[in-house]
Design goal:
The chain contains 2 helices and 26 strands. The chain has about 350 residues and is mostly beta strands. The protein folds into 3 domains: about 160 residues, Carboxypeptidase-like, regulatory domain (Immunoglobulin-like); about 80 residues, Immunoglobulin-like, CATH 2.60.40; about 80 residues, Immunoglobulin-like, CATH 2.60.40.10. A hairpin with a 5-residue loop joins β17 and β18. It starts with 6 loop residues before the first strand and ends with a strand. About 20% of the residues have low confidence.
């Protein structure tokens, strides 16, 4: 099947997108990119590993329980495999007696003012191989009080995340985590100019493949159109799903650090209403079992009802209606953007 290439536009991904990206943040995985081998190879901490986290600027929510009861989810795959972000130096605002943590989308971008989820872990795995969660905070720039020692700091912004191993040698210091991330906004158009709404279409976003297509994993399921989703930089496999049958359009879309990528995927499909009638224009017969196949016999969709609605990609099909022990059928064609009834006559 020939596919229309998606249209893409890239603009700077700055603070005006933070609120929309924050809506997606609640869907985020427990992303810890330091999973697996790195966690098993770290050395014991040189300090006690205990400390205090103070509330970030702006009064954002923070978990003050530093009892070390939480664990890192090290068994899940990382969100994205990316090259290590450059070290851009310490934050500009370092307060005496605290360790400042700052996150940026790209090296030259300004600090993220809100929407960042921070987690701080000790560096020694427990008996189960997981690192101990010492504290967490939500906000932008945060100021942390830590004893001398080695820690892992993870910053998540929507679906984007980065982890850095830090060493605290004194009461004052700081670190900038470059997420190497951008945003993506997806739109679907059917036919010539029909913009599909959130009730009609959704998108599955798969993480970049490392060892071939079979290695892809579903990162964001059923994303609605028009929302900004923050992601680590990379090329993502996106599938536009219109309806529940075969109107699925794939595309590979690149996300650049610090930029918003707006991509439009083009569907070639239509919504059909199936009816079993005694005459053209007649009333649909209830208690009818339906199946739609390609002309070669491949099953596309099955349903039961008087007039089920189905979205099909453009092409030629056979509709079969089974009622009262008898089967009736007709061949029909689907034209992109032309919604209509398909009638099967009782003969």
């Amino acid at each position: 099947m020939a596919l229309t290439q998606p249209q893409e536009k890239r603009t700077p991904f700055r603070r005006r997108h933070a609120a929309a990206a924050g809506l997606i943040a609640g869907l985020a995985l427990a992303l810890l990119a330091f999973a697996g081998a790195d966690a098993a190879q770290v050395a014991p901490a040189t300090g006690s590993g205990d400390g205090d986290i103070v509330a970030p600027a702006g009064g954002s929510d923070i978990n003050m329980d530093l009892g070390g009861s939480g664990d890192a989810e090290t068994g899940i795959p990382p969100a994205v495999s990316v090259e290590p972000a450059p070290d851009v130096g310490p934050p500009a605002d370092i307060r005496p007696g605290s360790f400042t943590l700052e996150a940026r989308l790209a090296p030259d971008d300004p600090p993220l003012g809100d929407g960042v989820k921070w987690r701080i872990f000790g560096d020694t795995p427990g008996p189960d191989g997981h690192l101990t969660l010492l504290g967490e905070a939500s906000g932008g720039i945060i100021y942390v009080r830590l004893d001398q020692g080695v820690y892992y700091v993870h910053a998540a912004y929507g679906r984007a995340g980065a982890t850095r191993k830090i060493e605290v040698t004194g009461p004052t210091g700081g670190e900038v985590l470059v997420l190497n991330a951008g945003g993506i906004r997806l739109i679907a158009i059917n036919g010539k100019d029909q913009v599909l709404t959130g009730s009609e279409v959704s998108f599955d976003i798969y993480a970049p493949e490392e060892g071939g297509a079979e290695e892809r994993f579903l990162l964001v399921p059923n994303a609605p159109p028009g929302h900004v989703i923050s992601l680590n930089a990379g090329t993502y496999h996106v599938v536009s799903k219109y309806g529940d049958a075969n109107a699925n359009v794939p595309a590979d879309i690149k996300v650049d650090p610090g930029k918003l990528t707006e991509a439009t995927l083009f569907q070639k499909a239509a919504r059909l209403t199936l009816k079993l009638v005694e005459q053209h224009g007649g009333e649909a017969i209830a208690d009818t079992a339906w199946s739609v196949t390609t002309l070669s016999g491949d099953s596309v969709v099955e349903s039961v009802g008087a007039f089920p609605s189905v979205v099909l990609t453009a092409g030629d099909y056979t509709a079969k209606a089974k009622h009262d022990g008898k089967t009736f059928q007709t061949n029909f064609s689907v034209e992109a953007g032309v919604n209509r009834d398909v009638e099967v006559l009782v003969e």
